[in-house]
Amino acid sequence: MLDEIDRALVHALHIDGRASFTQLATVLAVSPQTVSRHYERLREQAALRVVGLPDPQLTGHEQWLLRLAAAPETALDLAHALVRRADTSWVYLTGGGTEIVAVLETPLGMAHGHSLLLHELPPSVGLTAVSAHHLLHTYRGWRTPWQMSANALTARQQRMLGGTRLVSRGETPPSDHCSQVQLSPADHALMDALRRDGRAAIAELAAGTGWSPATVSRRLDHLRACGAIFFDIEIDPALLGGNVKALLWMAVAPAHLDEVATALARHDELAFVAHTTGPTNLVAHALCRDTAALYRYLTHGLGAVKAIHTMETAPVLRTLKAVGTIPTPGSPSDRGRTT
After folding, report:
1. I want to staple 338 with a disulfide (CB 3.0 to 4.6 A). Which of 18, 181, 237, 253 is the partner?
2. What is the pTM of this model?
3. Helices (DSSP H) in 171-212: which residue ranges?
4. Domain residues of the chain, as ranges?
């Protein structure tokens, strides 16, 4: 399990994934050596990783939530085919092991972008069913982390890292403070590198983009300031009390959707809440300590929300890919350098 410093460090990295060990040490009131030691241990034992992610809305993209079904003997092959794609994230094996759920990112305006993915999948995967849900609005997730992974710092400590009330309360930050960003090939290379390693040193990022370190530093500062890129954390949720995982597909009357989704985004059990297209217009990702806790949440937590007309529960058996790029063997490791 995580100790007090571990939890504080995880929360701090949610706020500023590129904060130096010295900055983090000041906020946590420990030495930089202590921060470094805890960080390395979390990387090795808790699968901690910082990843830089582009904001889809500001970088000309949209997201689809795909539910794909395959025969039992080919479902895992289908899942791994999705994992290998650069435009996918959150690849889950759910239900009885024959359904795969994944998030696909496509260029804005490509209304049938998800269909292109299906044509590119190898025929051997034995695809038997498909449904695609356009992600219209996210209430919890992406920029607003699961509350159980971001509840260790005081308000003062969060301010020291530049955090705001959005970080601790799970509200969706406005994106209208910056118009859509036109990305150059070097920008794409920069974002690809940060998706692999959000704490990569400026010198490493410069080598991958062809820019000078000073140019990389200025461009990264600009992209962060206007919201075109942000940083997220990958970590084993079981260490934070999320041993049992389930996807929840809910149908809510449109008149009550925003009210219900906003309320659910404050629930400790939910790491992701979003409005989607389709017969179930609200999807959530539940993380609970055990099956008994999941039962209590479904019957008492969600059962008390009268505006939820129907709900489907799909247990997550395996998480094959999260938000970052799957590291390749021999890729540079994250040593906590952000200079």
Report:
1. 18
2. 0.87
3. 185-196, 202-209
4. 61-139, 182-225, 238-315
